[in-house]
Design goal:
single chain; about 400 residues; alpha+beta; five-stranded mixed sheet; about 35% helix; binds dinuclear copper ion
């Protein structure tokens, strides 16, 4: 196994063995061109660069190392000491390893076999007790933090239900009677207690001819009385994560979980679904928009209003007609009425669009809400989101204009 052909400069045998274990070759060993080896080394180097590069995004907005509220701060305050304990152990253990590997390496011409040692009670007791004490020491703040974060906050708390759909987040404010999607609006300085559950596509979606009752938009343990669990059954697992505001919480079909978030300062905090949930998992983002308490009250008041009816005879009114005939099987708009002024109740399997234009993003918060994006989305949803549940209605260019004109009125 000694490196190189006779006459070549040799690598130390230990170094050569270590390099071979790591899938590398000693650079002094051979100049033979082995394309397979070059390829694997290039791959290894590129992988290492990718790993390092991934840590260097200039505008990385999702960092658990920059907590923006008390709940994220608690996780961070636990992370820091545990990190330093782990780092100290790493450098100590690796330091000894490297030191011994170099200090007691095989040297040329040395043939003596070192003394063979079998067992050392004192050392073995020490390296059993020491890690036990360290782990027990780390467990105390860890368990305390877990209990602390799991406790339901008391006092002035905002309640919001978070429903994980394929592939978007829905937010239900039960006290304010607001249903919205993709953007979670919260007041600053106030704990927000999230109730998280997974939602299926909806009862209506199973039977296009008979839309049935609106899909469940609140976290509930099962389907409404007398109905098959179609909506619940189609649900899949997700995980809600906005790193600057809190740790992550899984969203599991048939289970109701909780998470408390809070932001200290007004701003936009980005997050995403963190659990693989199907084809468009990577398209399941979320924005938390934190307002001052006054601004939040204003947002609530605006969201509670009905959508304004499109002006009769306008492009938007034509779009509203298309919406009523094609879209209400899945989308609801509060205050929507047909040409006779009769209310139209849409199903809620897909995002509620009452105040669509008040949100900066749509399509799982991956597209900016503007006319061009809305038009592209309506024209060919599958081109934008692989596996999309949004059907392509084959709208003509004129119909697309009318739809965009209508959607633009939903402020
Ligand atoms: Cu939802 Cu991944």
């Amino acid at each position: 196994m000694a490196g190189g052909r006779p006459g070549k400069k040799r690598c130390p045998r230990a170094a050569s063995a270590v390099l071979q274990c790591a899938g590398l070759r000693c650079p002094l060993m051979s100049v033979r061109r082995d394309t397979g080896n070059v390829r694997s080394r290039t791959l290894l180097g590129l992988s290492a660069l990718a790993v390092i590069g991934a840590a260097c995004a200039p505008n990385a907005s999702q960092s658990a190392l920059e907590p923006a509220g008390p709940y994220a701060q608690k996780s961070f305050d636990l992370f820091v000491p545990v990190f330093w304990v782990a780092a100290a152990i790493f450098f100590l253990v690796e330091g000894f390893l490297v030191f011994f590997a170099i200090r007691y390496r095989h040297r040329k011409g040395r043939t003596r076999i070192p003394a063979q040692v079998h067992g050392n009670t004192r050392l073995e007791v020490a390296w059993t007790i020491l890690p036990t004490l360290i782990l027990a020491g780390v467990a105390v703040p860890t368990v305390a933090t877990i209990w602390d974060l799991a406790a339901e906050p008391e006092g002035d708390v905002l309640q919001v239900s978070v429903l994980g759909h394929q592939w978007w987040w829905e937010f239900d404010y039960p006290e304010q009677k607001i249903l919205t999607a993709n953007e979670l609006h919260i007041p600053t300085g106030r704990p927000v207690y999230l109730t998280l559950c997974a939602a299926g596509f909806g009862y209506g979606a199973e039977l296009p001819s008979d839309p049935g009752p609106p899909s469940p938009n609140e976290c509930q343990p099962g389907p409404p009385d007398g109905l098959p669990p179609a909506g619940i059954g189609a649900a899949v697992i997700h995980s809600f994560w906005v790193p600057e505001l809190a740790g992550t919480q899984d969203v599991v079909p048939g289970v109701t979980n909780h998470l408390t978030i809070q932001a200290d300062e007004p701003g936009v905090y980005e997050g995403q679904c963190k659990e693989f949930c199907g084809l468009a998992h990577a398209y399941m983002k979320v924005k938390v928009v934190a307002h001052s308490p006054e601004d939040f009250d204003q947002w609530v008041a605006e969201q509670q209003t009905d959508a304004v009816a499109a002006e009769p005879g306008s492009n938007a009114a034509a779009g509203a007609e298309i919406f009523i005939s094609q879209c209400t099987a899945c989308h609801a708009i509060q205050g929507l009425a047909d040409a006779n002024g009769d209310p139209v109740v849409g199903n809620n399997g897909a995002p509620n669009l009452t105040h669509l234009m008040s949100r900066t993003c749509f399509r799982g918060c991956t597209l900016e809400t503007n006319d061009a994006n809305l038009r592209a989305w309506l024209a060919d949803p599958a081109k934008i989101e692989l596996g999309s549940f949004m059907p392509d209605y084959d709208l003509s260019p004129e119909e697309l204009d009318q739809m965009v004109a209508y959607l633009s009125t939903l402020e």
